[in-house]
Inverse folding.
């Protein structure tokens, strides 16, 4: 369908060198977009760009340190230099520190907040004028099911992801006049390197997740490709300020 066609569009994907980020980059590329992979690990960046290129996409990588306040501007500048425009921003870079709140240092709190929330704001702000120049744009930010639920071991992470939902709403309200739609995705339990480690560290986690998830399985990074294309395309032009769970129904069942 033409409404889902991203030919001629340019997408920045932070944390786009693996997991959910790479799956979204692959989905956007498959719909015709050129991709800027922004990530801290330059070896993984190169591998991601190589995989995208072999699939027929135009892609480049940019070193991206989320806690660097200038990273958003540098990434936007690199996208403009390579492709001449910015249409789509996927804020996917993130981190978590698994500690109880009383054991979390302020340095750890700031690390999580700066990586997850502040970088999302900085990247969106850096891309905004270029989206205006392009006649509109799409901002897709990755929250979490901890935007809705609490966790005794993830106070900083949950706060940062809840902040992403509220930031998304604020950006959506502010930028609607510029034809920029801003939405968030809330991943549930997804089978990634991080959650595989979590299943080892937290006995019984797999059984609890399977028992509560109506879909009867863990999510896969590829489950985000379609929703990324939808929110990046003209098919979603009247959808903004939303936070969409991608969790197999985990959040609807007690």
């Amino acid at each position: 369908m033409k409404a889902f066609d991203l030919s001629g569009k340019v997408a920045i994907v932070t944390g786009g060198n693996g997991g959910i980020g790479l799956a979204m980059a692959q989905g956007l590329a498959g719909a015709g977009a050129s991709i800027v992979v922004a990530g801290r690990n330059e070896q993984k960046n190169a591998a991601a760009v190589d995989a995208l290129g072999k699939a027929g996409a135009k892609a480049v990588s940019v070193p991206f340190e989320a806690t660097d306040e200038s990273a958003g501007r540098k990434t936007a500048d690199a996208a403009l230099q390579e492709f001449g425009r910015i249409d789509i921003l996927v804020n996917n870079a993130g981190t978590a520190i698994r500690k109880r709140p009383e054991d979390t240092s302020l340095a750890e709190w700031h690390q999580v907040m700066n990586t997850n929330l502040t970088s999302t704001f900085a990247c969106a702000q850096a891309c905004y004028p270029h989206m205006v120049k392009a006649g509109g744009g799409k901002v897709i930010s990755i929250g979490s099911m901890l935007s809705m639920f609490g966790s005794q071991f993830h106070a900083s992470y949950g706060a940062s992801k809840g902040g992403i939902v509220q930031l998304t709403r604020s950006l959506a309200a502010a930028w609607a006049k510029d034809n920029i739609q801003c939405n968030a995705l809330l991943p549930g339990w997804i089978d990634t390197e991080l959650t595989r480690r979590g299943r080892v560290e937290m006995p019984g986690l797999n059984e609890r997740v399977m028992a509560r998830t109506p879909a009867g399985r863990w999510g896969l990074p590829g489950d985000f490709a379609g929703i990324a294309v939808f929110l990046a395309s003209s098919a979603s032009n009247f959808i903004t300020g939303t936070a969409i769970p991608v969790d197999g129904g985990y959040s609807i069942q007690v």
In short: The chain has eight helices and seven strands. The first strand starts at residue 10 and ends at 14. The mean pLDDT is 96.
